[in-house]
Amino acid sequence: MAEENVIFVGKKPTMNYVLAIVTQFNNNSTSRIVIKARGKAISKAVDIAEITRHKFIQDAKYDEIKLDTESLQGEKGESNVSSIEIVLTR
């Protein structure tokens, strides 16, 4: 899958990500978008997928949802961070 079909969710406003997904579906004639998030951004990723499906692209479907836990090495030692990967198809 091309790297431009992946949306990494962070601290930007929710609608920025929704707009990016809608733009990719409409302009790039892609049929598959992956939304990725870790930690506190997981709930925002779910909101983004739901807003996209219900308000903008009603024919979008969930193809796959992956949940995972990643071990990250930080200043305070190793910590586990949850991650999600939501695949939307059209």
Count of individual beta strands: 4
Helical run tally: 2
CATH superfamily placement:
Alba-like domain
Largest sheet, if any? Answer: 4 strands, mixed
Keywords: Acetylation, Chromosome, Cytoplasm, DNA condensation, DNA-binding
Protein name: DNA/RNA-binding protein Alba
GO biological process, one term: chromosome condensation
Subcellular location: Cytoplasm; Chromosome
Description:
- With 90 residues, this protein is an alpha+beta fold.
- It has a single domain, classed as Translation Initiation Factor IF3 (2-Layer Sandwich).
- The chain has two helices and four strands, in the order βαβαββ.
- A hairpin with a 2-residue loop joins strand 3 (61-74) and strand 4 (77-89).
- It is elongated and about 45 Å long.
- Belongs to the histone-like Alba family.
- The modification N6-acetyllysine is found at residue 11.
- Its main location: cytoplasm.
Short description:
This protein is an alpha+beta fold and 90 residues long. It is 32% helix and 41% strand.
Defining traits:
elongated, 90 residues, 41% strand, alpha+beta, Translation Initiation Factor IF3, 4-stranded mixed beta sheet, single chain
Secondary-structure map:
Layout lengths: L5 E3 L5 H14 L4 E7 L3 H15 L4 E14 L2 E13 L1
Parallel strand pairs: 1-2
Antiparallel strand pairs: 2-4, 3-4
